[in-house]
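Please fill in the sequence for the structure shown.

STRUCTURE ENCODING:
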């Protein structure tokens, strides 16, 4: 690896070679819980200080992070900066600015029978949280949940994906060599060890990854009743209707689909284009691909690679039995597949059965939006849905009839860049959300507390004393009058 990183573990827990026994994992949790119980992380000043420190470290390690992303995914440093670091720094700044007001206990009204009393909601950290990250945006998807959990005052174990080893080295050095392990601790163990880790007694888990592993994490979490958020993948549809601005749609779809070689959870998975605009749309996509990546995308420096040969082979097999209408060239040595458009006649085709998660884009056509909506309603709910249209009634119809994690009208992916919008799935694409204030709330338990004084109206009402018929009738009458 060409970065300057030398992983020198500062302490026993940070030594990865010793991290394969379930007792080691229990040890991490206990060590972090003991620290959490000192209440140090509950101080708002402490949290702000740690977020500022993390921001400085991200700046300090910027070149190494971008180099590691290049090594793991062949990503251009500029792309790495825009899609991973920029979002993160911006969100940390936002947390630092807003944390004090979010963390203030919220006073709410007390109901009539509780007068006089004070009702408050306290936002308390869960305690010791586990964040499990995937490999496709290995820095952002490790750090973004981590900063939400830090903002909420938790201690955190971060489990990076074993498939992005260069980025992991930087993360492990950045976290383990600069923060006390009892507060933040990063490791990059494999699947088997992660199964043990999940069972080690965490107070909250945020998992980002595939649907299959998400289910298994949820089963393990059920044994200990550990609350969790599942950020999963799925097949994100795009509708390009007859009113769409085709050039604009093609430009934004090509960017959203082929960035990071299609290995983006929010990338368009397949397109339904209105039959009357199909030929024009395919031509526009072709032009855009050339504009973005030239005539030889595989050798274009901005065009990334597939993460490893397993995923490369999986994608090559998906290409079998499809009708390639554009692209289709591959290079096994570089693990690259060029932006490829395939024509698909039916949703029963092999390529429509699983999330593609690579640079292959199936194109289907439709005639009637109502029939298409009816069809989508039978499919698992996607993480995202994108609609290219200039027709307000159609936009309204799609938004109100279909359920999906989140989405865009006339764009794709960009909703995740808005720190004011929650990010998360629904149904098969997961549940729970984070980003911005939603991240702070997700990693906090909203604890309601009713504070009453010596006198309380309820003490004088019949439900607190013997239930005589006259008293209860009188009480029921009053209750009905005041709306109970
Ligand atoms: P994955 O499910 O294979 O792995 C995710 C994490 O789980 C990794 O850290 C991995 O080490 C760990 N893991 C693997 N097997 C495990 C097991 N048996 N028990 C416990 N942990 C285990 O996913 P991936 O290949 O890293 O990422 C790709 C998937 O993630 C795609 O489906 C993509 O759509 C999804 N994704 C979703 C989001 C989102 O925010 N919703 C973001 C990125 C990726």
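FILLED IN BY: designer on duty
SEQUENCE:
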């Amino acid at each position: 690896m060409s970065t300057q990183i030398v992983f020198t573990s500062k302490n026993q827990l940070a030594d990865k070679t010793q991290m394969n026994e379930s007792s080691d994992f229990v040890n991490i949790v206990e060590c972090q819980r003991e620290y959490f119980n000192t209440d140090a992380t509950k101080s708002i000043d402490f949290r702000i200080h740690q977020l500022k420190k993390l921001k400085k470290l991200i700046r300090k390690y910027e070149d190494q992070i971008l180099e590691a992303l290049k090594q793991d995914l062949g990503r251009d440093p500029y792309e790495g900066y825009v899609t991973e670091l920029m979002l993160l720094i911006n969100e940390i700044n936002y947390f630092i600015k807003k944390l004090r007001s979010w963390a203030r206990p919220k006073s709410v009204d007390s109901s009539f029978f509780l007068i006089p009393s004070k009702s408050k909601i306290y936002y308390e950290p869960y305690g010791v949280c586990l964040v499990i990250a995937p490999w496709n945006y290995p820095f952002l998807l490790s750090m973004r949940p981590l900063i939400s959990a830090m903002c909420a005052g938790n201690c955190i174990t971060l489990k990076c994906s074993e498939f992005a080893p260069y980025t992991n080295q930087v993360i492990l050095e950045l976290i383990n060599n600069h923060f006390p392990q009892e507060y933040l601790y990063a490791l990059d163990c494999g699947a088997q060890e992660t199964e043990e880790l999940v069972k080690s007694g965490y107070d909250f888990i945020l998992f980002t990854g595939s649907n299959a592993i998400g289910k298994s994490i949820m089963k393990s979490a059920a044994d200990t009743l550990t609350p969790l958020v599942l950020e999963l993948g799925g097949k994100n549809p795009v509708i390009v209707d007859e009113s769409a601005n085709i050039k604009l749609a093609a430009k934004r779809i090509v960017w959203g689909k082929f960035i990071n070689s299609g290995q983006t959870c929010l990338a368009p998975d397949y397109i339904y284009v209105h039959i009357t605009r199909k030929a024009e749309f395919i031509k526009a996509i072709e032009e855009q691909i050339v504009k973005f990546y030239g005539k030889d995308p595989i050798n274009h420096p901005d065009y990334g690679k597939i993460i490893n040969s397993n995923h490369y082979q999986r994608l090559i097999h998906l290409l079998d039995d499809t009708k390639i209408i554009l692209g289709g060239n591959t290079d096994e040595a570089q693990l690259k597949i060029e932006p490829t458009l395939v024509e698909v006649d039916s949703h029963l085709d092999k390529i429509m059965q699983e999330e593609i998660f690579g640079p292959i884009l199936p194109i289907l056509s439709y005639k009637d939006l109502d029939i298409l909506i009816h069809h989508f309603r039978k499919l698992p709910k996607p993480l995202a849905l994108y609609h290219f249209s200039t027709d307000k009634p159609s936009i309204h119809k799609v938004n109100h009839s279909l359920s999906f994690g989140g989405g865009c009208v006339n764009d794709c992916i960009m909703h995740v860049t808005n720190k004011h919008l929650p990010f998360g799935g629904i149904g098969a694409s997961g549940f729970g959300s984070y980003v911005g204030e939603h991240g702070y709330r997700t990693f906090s338990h909203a604890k309601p507390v009713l504070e009453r004084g010596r006198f309380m109206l309820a003490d004088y009402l019949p439900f607190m004393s013997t239930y005589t018929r006259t008293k209860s009738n009188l009480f029921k009458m009053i209750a009905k009058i005041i709306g109970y």
